[in-house]
Amino acid sequence: MADPRETGPALDPKWDAQGLITGVATDADSGALLMVAHLNAEALALTLSTGEAHFWSRSRQRIWKKGETSGHVLRVVEARIDCDQDALWLRVRPAGPACHTGAPSCFYRRIENGALVAG
Amino acid sequence: MADPRETGPALDPKWDAQGLITGVATDADSGALLMVAHLNAEALALTLSTGEAHFWSRSRQRIWKKGETSGHVLRVVEARIDCDQDALWLRVRPAGPACHTGAPSCFYRRIENGALVAG
Question: Which residues are involved in binding Zn(2+) (chains A, B) (predicted)?
């Protein structure tokens, strides 16, 4: 009954219909969730080989190194994968704000009573 | 230039072509990433109204309350949303192992030199 994808030692990502897995980046020191994005096979290979987070931009339809223009790269301290290998967890050290808005994290608003509150 | 979805107070999720956003659950105490799943509008509404994490199962095509059979529910301490409102961060207190394999987190393997290592 054991599913080798869940129990085995092989990295065997379960790409979705668009050829992507979900990537989650957290701050390796504070633990804060910084951003969520997507990776195709090339982005995953580049992330693992360079030690800097790369993603696939669905809006621009191209590989995107996080921080390629801002300089705010994410250095990968550890990469982990989930049970069914469709989600990647990158524990990173960010070189600057992770969000394009300038916020340290993309998750700068909490939901309270159905509305959004900063901080 | 300000995008109200990024700067405004309205919860206005950016559903993908399947009507889903990405959900990320972390342990509110340890900060560990527990699981990644997806939510449709009903799952989000149920999560916010009940304070327990609900998701949309893409494989079973139905609403799924995490822990509905195992009892390992995720009590939501805080819900946050990202800049473009296509990802939800749930800080939770888990009632048991978050992974269906029995592991505390679905991310029980790290990637080292292209292979998977437990722990």
Answer: 83, 99, 106
